[in-house]
Design a protein that fits this description.
Number of domains: 2
Structural class: alpha+beta
Helix content: 10-25%
CATH class of the largest domain: Alpha Beta
CATH superfamily of the largest domain: Hotdog Thioesterase
Order of helices and strands: EHHEEEEEHEHEEEE
CATH topology of the largest domain: Thiol Ester Dehydrase, Chain A
Distance between the termini: 33 Å
Largest sheet: 11 strands, antiparallel
Radius of gyration: 18 Å
Shape: globular
Number of strands: 11
Strand content: 35-45%
């Protein structure tokens, strides 16, 4: 298939959870790594955007894992541009094991941020270029919409943003938010459960030293909704949904 980028990964010891499986957050890191490499190959990578004083920011992400790879497993990640809608550039992913079975999938929506003004921008030429290399295959039939968190949530944890949370542009790394949510609901009682699916919306940036409140609402069937807000102004930073099985 045209415009599909592939990269092989071997699951290392530092990718594992206590059950010996790759963490969902390890998979999320793999997805973002192959997205970076493919964007660079297409002339739309980090350095390309930086030369225009802009950068890609991940706005929405949905991951579904049928099965998690284990230590020393070799997996193939495939990714491709899957469309452009309004300000969003869409990108999908597929995880294939050594036998050729698809064991995971993901879909993402990206925005372009002006590094000076910290405002979203719409460089028409770049999004038009993105549309030209789009592959029609989508891993989910549903669009990546806003996550509707129930009104009633309970505070689970407060996290102070530390230096190790930050990414290359000085904002909290996307995967850190996932870790905060997962850690906030991980207990001895649900330790045997697996995260089958995670969906997350990134709405505002969090910076070094800020206090972030993690609140959640658990529904029947193992579905948990999260809302992360900044203590200083109650600004919503992240919403998320996790499905446990």
């Amino acid at each position: 298939m045209a415009h599909i980028f592939t990269k092989e990964f071997t699951i290392s010891s530092y990718d594992l959870n206590p059950k010996g499986q790759a963490r969902l957050t390890s998979m999320a890191n793999f997805f973002q790594e192959v997205a970076y490499h493919h964007a660079s190959e297409l002339g739309l990578g980090y350095d390309d955007l930086k030369s225009r004083k802009t950068t890609w920011v991940l706005s929405r992400m949905r991951i579904h894992m049928k099965r998690y790879p284990v230590w020393n497993d070799r997996i193939l990640l495939e990714t491709w541009p899957s469309g452009a809608e309004r300000l969003f550039a869409l990108r999908d992913f597929r995880v294939v094991d050594s036998s050729g079975e698809v064991i995971g999938m993901a879909s993402t929506a990206w925005l372009i941020l002006d590094l000076d003004s910290h405002r979203l921008v719409r460089p028409k030429d770049m999004l038009e270029q993105f549309k030209l290399i789009t592959h029609e295959k989508k891993m989910f039939t549903e669009a990546l919409d806003k996550i509707a968190v129930p009104e009633k949530t309970g505070l689970l944890n407060t996290h102070k943003v530390v230096f190790s949370d930050l990414d290359i542009v000085g904002h909290v790394n996307n995967v850190r938010y996932m870790e905060w949510c997962i850690d906030a609901v991980s207990t001895e009682e649900n330790a045997a459960l697996e995260i089958r699916e995670l969906e997350i919306n990134f709405t505002h940036e969090a910076l070094l030293g800020e206090l972030i409140h993690i609140a959640a609402a658990e529904l029947e069937g193992g579905e948990i909704f999260f809302k992360a807000t900044r203590e200083a102004d109650d600004q919503e930073i992240v919403t998320a949904r996790i499905k446990l099985v």
